[in-house]
Amino acid sequence: MSLSTLLKGRVALVTGSSTGIGYGIIKTLSAAGATTVMHGLIPEEELRKKTNILSEETGNEVSYHSADLMKPQEIREMIKDVQGRHGKLDILVNNAGIQFVSSVQDFPEDKWDAIVQVVMNAPFHASKAALPAMLEAGWGRIINTGSMHALVASPFKSAYNAAKHGVAGFTKTLALETATTGVTCNAICPGYVMTELIEKQLDNQAQTRGIPKRVITDILLVDQPIKRFVRAEEIGAMARHLCTDDASAITGACISVDGGWTAR
Q1: Which of 11, 109, 122, 173 would be a feasible disulfide site paired with 86, CB 3.0-4.6 Å?
Q2: Catalytic residue of the set 23, 64, 160, 192
Q3: CA separation, residue 258 to residues 155, 161, 163, 219, 235 (Å)
Q4: Rounded distance, CA 143 to CA 187, Å?
């Protein structure tokens, strides 16, 4: 079977997939033959344009949804809408994330709440909504984007570190609960990937620490032994593998794709 038909017949929803890591994942799944649903909070016209371009590139159907992940009811409605439109949802990738950098004593409480809601709570609500149909079908793939911050911590990122550690724990728990059902749940834990989120983080950290952005970049890559940013396409390739039957025994794993960061 070729890579272009590896996921033919599967339906996949990737949250936070209009840019960055999520776009790398949805592009890879679409290129592998899956019918995909892009999710993002960018203007609808821009979402439509992105899905049309991706569909033309891969030759497979790409639609979109713009649920607000801060609102559990909208998450449930999104899952129901995808299932209704396509008849099923085989693959759920909980990827959406937001970031804010500050010391604990100065961390705005509303920023903490927002990060926890989008990074940790939204995967719970989406997985809970998608799971019954997957269990009935006897097949499903839930993939959470964990980050190396699901495994180790960095200063000035207390909310993100806490939420991503929560994602790791949720992933393991769900995997144990579904271990004999044909449904798997795994987390991919990337190192630093040059995305819009990282760009904003670099600006924020440079301001917080009072040092040039270039220096922050050098500091980030000091802890990433391959001395380059991980590519979004590399995360997509790992997600693609986890969606195949060859990966049916991989569940409850927090897989590092971090350039050696957590090998230290």
Answers
A1: 11
A2: 160
A3: 18, 16, 18, 15, 10
A4: 6
- Looking from the CA of 203 toward its CB, the CA atoms found within 13 Å total 6
Strand 254-257 to 62-65 pairing? unpaired
* Beta carbons of 104 and 158 less than 8 angstroms apart: yes
Given the structure tokens 């989120």, which residue do they identify? 197
Whether pTM > 0.85 for this model: the answer is: yes
Angle CA 25–129–161, to nearest 5: 55
For this structure, is 192 an active site residue?
Answer: no
Residue 259 DSSP one-character state: T
Contact partners, residue 104, CB within 8 Å, separation at least 6: 158
Per-residue pLDDT of the chain (264 residues; tens, 9 = 90+): 789 899 999 999 999 999 999 999 999 999 999 999 999 999 999 999 999 999 999 999 999 999 999 999 999 999 999 999 999 999 999 999 999 999 999 999 999 999 999 999 999 999 999 999 999 999 999 999 999 999 999 999 999 999 999 999 999 999 999 999 999 999 999 998 977 767 776 777 777 778 776 666 777 788 889 888 899 999 999 999 999 999 999 999 999 999 998 998
- Which structure tokens are listed for 168? 């790791």
Note the helical H segments in the chain: 20-31, 44-58, 72-86, 109-116, 122-137, 158-177, 196-209, 213-222, 232-242
**SS3 call for 182:** coil
